[in-house]
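Long-time lurker, first post.

We've been arguing in lab meeting about whether zinc ion would sit comfortably in this protein at all. Half the group thinks yes, half thinks no, and nobody has a model to point at. So I'm putting the question to the forum: if I give you the sequence and the SMILES, can you give me back a predicted structure of the complex? Inputs are below. Any interpretation is welcome too.
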Amino acid sequence: MRPTFARLATAVAAALVACGGDGATKPRIDPVDTTATQALVSASISAPAVVNPTQATWPNATIPVTVGYSPSTLSNVQISCTVDGIPVTLCSGVTASIGKHVIKAAVTASGVTKVDSVEVVVAAPLIIGQIAMADGSSCPTGTMVFAGENKEDATQVHNDCTFSLPTKFALGDTVVFRAIDPSARMKDFFGRVPKRYFSSFNIVGIPAVWTIKGDLYGGAKITVDLEAAYAPPAGSGEVSGFYTRGRQVGKPWKYTVGSYPRAIPTLACTTALGTMSADDSASFWSFAAVIQQIVGRVVFAASSSQTACTGPIGSIELKIAGGTHAGGSFGAISGRDFSYGSVNARTGDDFHNGGTVRHEIGHVLSFGHTNSWASVMWSSSTFSLEDVAYIQLMDAVAAAERTLNTRLSLPQAHQGERVKKFGASAEEPVDVYEPVAP
Ligand SMILES: [Zn+2]
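Top reply:
Settle the argument with this. Predicted structure of the protein with zinc ion, as tokens:
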């Protein structure tokens, strides 16, 4: 830090007068010289070490400069400044481009001149990001990342899966981003991203084709069609599609990164209508095991804590609830991605109906109804090829989002898909969902 002086305001005002910065229309009145016997001892200049451009000044920045001198009571003081040796009109607000600059001030009083200088860096704001594929395949190097409504800025994903974008758009509150993989292995990304994401702009790459893992349909390839996945059954009057986290076509899943539990406590709850028998329980778990086989990890964890039945947070309740239909639900509250689920059987018999249990578990896993293909979520009693592929995709996307700490993934890939299918002009980038803090 450079020394400051007690009467900087006076000194700056003097600088403005000396440089004519107060406009030429006012009459100029020199202060009365009451300190003629004093001599100039020193001059000082101060400015921030690093200054960022603003959107208005890009690619330049306005550097706030303060010039002082001692003794500060001197009058008839002349102050002039240079930036990299070039004289400037005003010392107080110097404009300079991206890079390092030397700003020099010369203070003259009664024939004595003192100089001081300061170094200022005008920084280029960087957006730094990383892309990881949800299916664990190698990242799409060579993918172009664009910023701005009209792709004004562009960069390429490097071999280490990162990219950096020095851009004026990092200065705005939100900016439109696109990521386009020329090889089309990754689905395009089209989103509008708030400024606070810019420092870690990580994207989960959604593969264009999902290869099923595991024993059930293992090795089969399904083209990932998010428009179909999000579409509710025709004529059903439902707004939620296969991925109910989205609720509406093109809208982001609503959950907080990292809050999806690894294994969800699952509990048989006693109701006035009865409780699951040991047989009911064994049957439920045999069907639940298929889901775990599909996903390739433990999804349900048997729980004995009755609190899951009374105030379920992060748990699934199984119960005999009567009524005319079996039901399954998925709930996300307080900004979590998963808060509770329930499988409501009419009677214990429902736990012995594979189609019913699979369907309701599908709801618990956040899937809605679809008939875009033969699906356990509408027309079939068993998991189809597509069901398995999308369940695996959903789980892999959630895991990748946790790893990268990002929620830039499926919704933006859905919108990228729509742009490709229907044309960019009709489409809006998808905003990032901002969860409420739990
Ligand atoms: Zn249903």
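For your lab meeting: The chain has three domains: 8-122, 126-207, 209-396. Residues 417 and 423 are 10 Å apart (CA to CA). Whichever side wins, do check it experimentally.
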